[in-house]
Amino acid sequence: TLVPNLPNVILDTTTNAVGYITGFEHDSATHKLYIAGEFQRVGSVNRQGFAVIDMNTGALLNDLSFITLSDLSWTNHVKASLKLFKNRIYVGGMFSTPSNYYLFSVGLNDTIIRGLDSLAPLSDFEIYNSKIYTAGALYQSVPEEFDVNEMDTLGNITWQKSIINTTNEQFYCLAIRNNTLFVGGIFSSFGGVNLKNIAKVDLSTHTITSWQPTPSPGPSGNVTCYAVLDMVIYPNDILLNLGQAGCATPPNNIRGFDLATGNYNSQVRTLSYLATNEDLIAENDTMFWYYNGAGFKLYGLNSTFIHPWWPTPNTSGYVTRFFR
């Protein structure tokens, strides 16, 4: 059901071009929707990259209106992810703020800002067992862009591993379930262990495992031929969204692999590569949403179930990989 009266987000207040949202969190207790992305106005009110909306009325609220997220540069637009945790909103990603933080949290009641990371932009972050896990994003090739960190909610780093510091390698995503961390991107090693584009870490011991998808999803097993753009962890399998990375398009860019062995699971739905802006989002342990230029569809993980949900996008706006 569509919520009535939600305001539009405007990219440019001069041209009134439509903006886009790259991250949101819904507080079911207060019915407030927190949004972040590339916009300068929400409805008729100026808001720079962050806003809070009343889901009951669609009204723009004054909550946390002091938060501003701007472009890092002309070509590096706002990409932000949001997490609600213990009465705070956590904001992380690729953006510029007056305080120069790439990850920070704000108290929902006291509005106290807590800066957590000012060293490098983030490609992704998650909160798990009261710890924050971050993956850097390639921007200016500073060392911290190639790090995965575990930190407490005050920003103190308790564990860190890296990929090689080169513009040929970068992170795109991470995911956590059952005390296991997966990190994806384009890389040839992680924490000194030779691994192709995806790494699995046992968080109980912080051991980097030798787990790899088998067979390698890139053509001829070539490390440069695929990138792990996104992932969803299920009880027994991990579903990977694989992108083209410098050579032949992977024949199937949505593929499932066994969590324990890494073996390709032919029982998990496989989808062919159709466009460059494809994304997947978990609905539950049996289904996932999949987006490409043809719109949204809901797929069964281990069946032929397909339920079309949304029409083909048009010039009125975009949907990005951070929605869920």
Give the strand order, joined by hyphens, for the main sheet.
Answer: 2-1-5-6
The unreliable regions are 309-324
Count of DSSP helices? 0
Biggest sheet character:
4 strands, antiparallel
Name its key features.
four-stranded antiparallel beta sheet, 324 residues, mainly beta
Explain this structure.
The protein is mainly beta. 0% of the residues lie in helices and 46% in strands. It has no helices and 29 strands. The strands form eight sheets. It has a four-stranded antiparallel beta sheet, with no helix packed on it. It starts with 8 loop residues before the first strand and ends in a 14-residue tail after the last strand. The C terminus is likely disordered.
Describe, in short, the structure shown.
With 324 residues, this protein is mainly β. The chain has no helices and 29 strands. A hairpin with a 5-residue loop joins strand 14 and strand 15 (157-162).
Question: What topology emerges from the helices and strands here?
Answer:
Blueprint: E1 9-12, E2 17-18, E3 20-27, E4 32-38, E5 41-42, E6 45-46, E7 50-54, E8 79-85, E9 88-94, E10 103-107, E11 113-117, E12 122-128, E13 131-136, E14 147-151, E15 157-162, E16 170-177, E17 180-186, E18 189-190, E19 193-194, E20 198-202, E21 207-208, E22 227-233, E23 237-243, E24 252-258, E25 271-272, E26 279-282, E27 287-292, E28 295-300, E29 306-310
Antiparallel strand pairs: 1-2, 1-5, 3-4, 4-7, 5-6, 8-9, 9-10, 10-11, 12-13, 13-14, 14-15, 16-17, 17-20, 18-19, 20-21, 22-23, 23-24, 24-25, 26-27, 27-28, 28-29
